[in-house]
Write a structure and sequence with these properties.
The chain is an alpha/beta fold. 33% of the residues lie in helices and 23% in strands. It is built from 13 helices and 22 strands. Strands 9, 11, 14, 16, 17, 18, 19, 20, 21 and 22 form a 10-stranded mixed beta sheet that branches. The protein starts with a strand and ends in a 7-residue tail after the last helix. The mean pLDDT is 90.
């Protein structure tokens, strides 16, 4: 039996300071017994000679410096993992909250994981189809990539996250060879596919929405959900993404699954870090966030990728809401340094009633070149990406010019770009939440939109591609 310490010196917010401890290690779990007999779990945030700082997984309400016992358990926070986790929903402590029985684990893993040796990483290159045109064509998601979504308060990032979780998959070789004419056959997919969904600090309504979306579409059978609501303890919010990634690593690297991990909302996670940092009286960094925010985020984001010799992979899509839509805020700023691009949601498109409001300008997938082209999607994919983005950017410029000078001042080419931009938003960007377009459908819509422009303006697509695809593209005008 381990020693029970009765030397609690101070209680500050979710933290307990315990004096006179020996042999305590960082991140070690402990059990706190209150005067009334209640037992609560906590972990060591700081350990130095004779002193340990403990954060409880529950409220410190009822705890007192006199009579409270602390017993250190000699192990870190672990989660029991098994393939039986698929189809289940857990809280931020890893306990089932779907009414089902506890999962019988095949093994227990430390939720902090281990860094991936850069030498053993394989370069991400397989195309993941999300069914969303602005992502698939313009900001292609690659298997093994970490591609965040930058959103803002009130924007529909939850709906977009649920749609990606439901629809994300890899094309079969038959679909690529026949350019989408072959019927999708799940049995011919390259490996097994799974989704791990981690929600931090969400409302009860959002938690119910995610659960219902997975259930009604049948996607729950291939998904693992970790839900931390706003009324749950702060320490659970910090543990939730690590629980999700530990489950994903097990499924990917030990069971051969290709896992897409969606984490929402990373802003709530960072706010939890700031709260704990303030309780520890640490010297604050930018906007009050801890100085180690970059390092802490990296320990989460860098747990995505492909490992040489391992069949599975982890693709990560963290979602964050930018306070005041400020992309220079520390959270999106540091996230952009660590990850490989970003999907940017635009408030202007949202106010026009366009879903999903993904803006091509400001969005970027740095690895998309490896997942575009012959043998992966289609030969015209990369050219269409460049042409559509350039044409829309020019159309937006013309629209702003028309507001100042009037549409009558525009020449015929400018008017063509203006019409293109309007149709691009209404037909290419706009989709319903249940609209699951193949990459070939999205490219076909793009070619139809380019008919609005004079052929002399199509400088980023090859003449043979214009001849092959533009004439066959169905007209949606």
């Amino acid at each position: 039996m381990s020693t029970a310490y009765k030397t609690v010196r101070d209680i500050t917010g979710p933290l307990l300071m315990v004096e006179g401890v020996e042999g305590v290690t960082y991140d070690e779990l402990c059990e706190v017994e209150l005067v009334n007999g209640d037992r609560r779990l906590g972990k060591v945030l700081e350990a130095r000679e004779g002193l340990a700082v403990i954060q409880l997984f529950e409220s410190t309400q009822g705890a007192s410096t006199a009579g409270t016992k602390v017993r250190f358990l000699g192990r870190t926070f672990e989660i029991g993992v098994s393939e039986d986790m698929l189809g289940r929903m857990f809280n931020g402590s890893g306990h089932p909250i779907d009414g089902g029985p506890a999962v019988i684990p095949e093994k227990k893993l430390d939720i902090n994981g281990a860094p991936i040796n850069p030498f053993s990483r394989e370069f991400p290159e397989d195309f993941i189809q999300t069914g969303i045109s602005t992502i698939d064509v313009l900001n292609t998601l690659v298997r093994g990539q970490k591609l965040p979504i930058f959103s803002g308060a009130g924007l529909p990032h939850s709906q977009l996250a649920a749609q990606i979780a439901r629809q994300a998959r890899v094309l079969t070789s038959e679909e690529v060879e026949t350019e989408g004419e072959a019927e999708y056959d799940p049995s011919k997919e390259k490996g097994k596919f799974a989704v791990v969904f981690g929600a931090m600090g969400v409302t009860f309504e959002e938690a119910q929405y995610f659960k219902q979306e997975f259930e009604k579409t049948g996607a729950l059978s291939r998904a693992v959900l970790f839900i931390n609501t706003a009324d749950n303890p702060v320490v659970e919010r910090i543990a939730t993404p690590r629980l999700a990634l530990t489950a994903a690593e097990y499924l990917a690297y030990e069971k051969g699954y290709h896992v897409t991990v969606i984490l929402t909302d990373m802003t709530n996670y960072c706010e939890a870090l700031r709260e704990v940092s303030a309780a520890r009286k640490e010297v604050p960094g930018r906007r009050g966030y801890p100085g180690y925010l970059y390092t802490d985020l990296a320990t989460i984001y860098e747990r995505a990728g492909r490992i040489r010799g391992k069949e599975g992979s982890i693709t990560q899509i963290p979602i964050l809401t930018m306070p005041e839509d400020d992309v220079t805020h520390p959270i999106p700023d540091l996230t952009g340094y660590i990850t490989e691009g970003q999907i940017r949601l635009d408030r202007g498109l949202h106010q026009k009633g366009i879903f999903p409001p993904v803006i091509p300008m400001g969005s970027l997938s740095r690895l998309k070149g490896k997942a575009q082209g012959e043998g992966v999607t289609r030969g015209d994919h990369s050219s269409m990406d460049a042409q559509l983005t350039a044409a829309y950017a020019r159309g937006v410029e013309v629209r702003e010019l028309a507001v100042i000078l009037g549409e009558s001042s525009l020449n015929d080419t400018d008017k063509a770009y203006l019409k293109f931009a309007d149709r691009f938003e209404k037909e290419f960007i706009r989709q319903s939440e249940g609209d699951n377009r193949s990459i070939f459908e999205s490219l076909s819509i793009g070619w139809d939109l380019l008919k609005e422009l004079p052929k002399g303006e199509l400088k980023r697509v090859k003449p043979e591609q214009i001849e092959k695809y533009m004439t066959s593209a169905p007209s949606n005008a």
